[in-house]
Amino acid sequence: MALPHTQGLTEAPDGLDTATVDAAILGDREAFESLVHYYGPALHRYAHRMLADEGDILEVVQDTFVAAWRRLDSFRGESSMRTWLFAICSRKIVDSYRIKRAQPIDDKLLDPLVPSPEAGPFDTTSNAAFLEALEEALGELPYRQRAAWTLREVEMLTFVQIGKILRLTPDAVRGHHHRARANLSERMTRWR
């Protein structure tokens, strides 16, 4: 029997079937493990963009899932499981910032692609230099701008989803995203 928030659905909006989500909510450890495997990489990417130390990143992701497991009974389905987990992760990142200020480091999504055989040394070097400059520019952005840009451009979330994660209105998220793009555009002018 499906829980009220998933009744009549065969697939959750974010890709997992509702039976798995419902089973996890009811305390099924194997179903929750499926959630960890499904959402873990995206949460890690997000934390990786926001924090510098791999230990802090792993701790934030682990704390996210521990908090989610403890509070699964409070998940009401008003948002997707993905959005709910990102919101928890975002709060854990803010907690980490309260302890110390960190700078982001390279992310696998923005790592240079393996150069093709026809790519010359200039192309390879230029790509690496661009990504390094982008990382540096992202590191200079205020937290909310960097979070809005990362969640929108890397994780491909909507402004509504990002708003739920960051506890902002969609319009406020749009504003932070717009300012992030403007700041990045200004800092990256030499790459145009």
Query: Assembly state here?
Result: single chain
Can you give the helix content as a percent range? 55-70%
Assign the structural class, choosing from mainly alpha, mainly beta, alpha/beta, alpha+beta, or little secondary structure: mainly alpha
**Helix and strand sequence:** HHHHHHHH
The total count of helices amounts to 8
Total strands: the figure is 0
Mean pLDDT: 81
Radius of gyration: 18 Å
Spatial separation of the terminal alpha carbons: 55 Å
Low-confidence stretches: 1-11, 101-106
Main beta sheet:
none
β-strand amount: under 5%
Description:
The chain is 65% helix and 0% strand. The chain is built from eight helices and no strands. The longest helix is centred in the first third of the chain and has 22 residues, at 29-50. It is elongated. The model is unreliable at 1-11 and 101-106 (pLDDT under 50).
Provide a concise account of the structure shown.
By secondary structure, the chain is an all-alpha fold.
SSE map:
Layout (H helix, E strand, L loop, with lengths): L17 H8 L3 H22 L3 H18 L9 H19 L21 H20 L2 H12 L4 H8 L3 H18 L5
Keywords summarizing the entry:
192 residues, 8 helices
